[in-house]
């Protein structure tokens, strides 16, 4: 399942709980567009902000409405104890894979992060994607550690942070990691502005925030890159540069949450406080960008 | 209550829950030494890793066993919704103050952090200490933002990260913050190796990891600094340098957790997985340091 486009939908919510209707609409939207997989409860799905019950219900809805498309869910948490529980719940909900970041409060050591993956993979009967995102976890993986973790049973993929926009540098970075991991472990790119470059450099899958709301343009970029039309993928991505700039400036989550409201999916507020949507100025910029790009789906 | 030495005890725990007997022993130890306040459920108290019920019980035990010494507890969490709940529970448990860090998964904006403190202070009937610790929150306060937050009702103190070991630089840093906050808001120093320098530079209180296990030596440093014996405070702190080096290298939490076991308080493991205690080499170093310093209490 770790190939092509994996859509990371928002989990619209307010202080009372998840807006389940809006969440289901986002799952259906991705399923209708025939993305390759749906990663519910990623960072954009705000997994870290949800209770056990909320995660369980969201995972169940995602599987029910994905129309047979494989679903992955995030199971990250500060405590191994909770991660194991979330892993069990996710498997009961029928997901096809789980996504695990080394979420931290106290900075973690390499030994601690390895032991987390060792303990969790031992309990799993489905594949796990290692989620490398220092922006939210504040843990920076060395490639050697990723290599060791990738040898554990049930590791299916590694989700890496943005690569260089320089093709040779990006390719060297992906090749270096590839040399350290078993061939069945797939490499996925995140940081949407880096997706075309990452796929062109040999990544197998795009873990995509954009794909969670706008699956069609995301699929076009993915298909172009994975069928060898590297230039076309880059050109399509380049057109989205004004959107990528907003992503980098405000975080993909805030941008996509505002864009979902603009499409009439869910109601404002749709993020867990204290996180707020875009301010007025950024919202206007987003409006202009979306109109200019004629983004529909 | 925001003056002198505030002891931050460990919350010994394993995967089954809090070791309540060991926790109570640590509270009693601090109370017996007559520290000025006890900050249970700080970072060293692993608040971020506990459930609502666990936090509530720990706060209740801390108040019950503090022998009248004021107790502060940490109420930080990723969601404002949960912080408000923890604030209510803490007040019901009878604490005298709460400690709030802008805990983050998604990086927070200044607007979001301000709104968190605005919302929470509005709900409180006891003072709040603003917890500035980028190492664990990954949010860096500008002094101007601290100044704005300090104007909110019920703000009692600001807990700042380590200051320079150069006295003039440390004093300039404390003076700069002092100029931006109301006079009733007290400044507290954290990063134990920086405590003597911070108190000498004009901080009112030491928020102390060491004081949670070794209150007596911590009180001697505090009393020296706050009664004008700046050199004596520095000399006492300097003697502890081998311990501070372990703190900086492994984090105060791991060091103090190992030291507690060495004193026969609680049993191994005593930290929430995936966090582990010191490895064998560091544990030997700690043993040597403690013997050399003849640390008892």
Automatic annotation (TrEMBL), chains A, B:
The keyword Lyase applies. CDD domains: DHDPS-like (cd00408). Coiled coil: none annotated. InterPro entries: Aldolase_TIM, DapA-like. The keyword Repressor does not apply. Pfam families: DHDPS. Transmembrane segments: none annotated. It comes from the Bacteria. Keywords: Lyase. Belongs to the DapA family. This is Dihydrodipicolinate synthase family protein. The lineage of its organism: Bacteria, Bacillati, Bacillota, Bacilli, Bacillales.
């Amino acid at each position: 399942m770790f190939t092509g486009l994996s859509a990371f939908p928002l989990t619209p919510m307010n202080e009372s709980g998840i807006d389940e209707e809006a969440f289901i609409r986002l799952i259906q939207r991705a399923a209708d567009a025939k993305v390759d997989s749906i990663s519910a409860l990623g960072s954009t799905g705000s997994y870290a902000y949800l209770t056990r019950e909320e995660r369980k219900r969201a995972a169940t809805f995602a599987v029910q409405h994905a129309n047979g498309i494989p679903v992955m869910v995030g199971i990250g948490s500060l405590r191994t104890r909770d991660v194991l529980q979330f892993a069990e719940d996710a498997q009961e909900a029928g997901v096809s894979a789980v996504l695990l970041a080394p979420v931290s409060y106290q900075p973690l050591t390499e030994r601690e992060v390895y032991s987390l993956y060792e303990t969790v993979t031992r309990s799993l009967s489905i594949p796990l994607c290692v989620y490398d995102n220092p922006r939210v976890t504040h843990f920076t993986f060395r490639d050697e550690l990723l290599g060791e973790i990738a040898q554990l049973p049930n590791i299916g993929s590694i989700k890496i942070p943005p690569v260089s926009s320089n093709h040779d540098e990006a390719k060297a970075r992906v090749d270096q990691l590839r040399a350290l991991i078993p061939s069945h472990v797939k490499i996925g790119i995140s940081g949407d502005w880096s997706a075309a470059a990452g796929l062109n450099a040999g990544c197998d899958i795009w873990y995509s925030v954009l794909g969670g709301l706008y699956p069609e343009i995301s699929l076009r970029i993915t298909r172009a890159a994975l069928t060898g039309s590297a230039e076309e993928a880059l050109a399509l991505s380049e057109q989205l540069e004004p959107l990528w700039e907003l992503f980098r400036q405000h975080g993909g989550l805030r941008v996509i949450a505002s864009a979902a409201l603009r499409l009439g999916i869910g109601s404002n507020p749709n993020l867990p406080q204290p996180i707020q949507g875009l301010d007025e100025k950024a919202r206007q910029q987003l409006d202009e960008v979306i109109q200019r790009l004629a983004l529909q789906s």
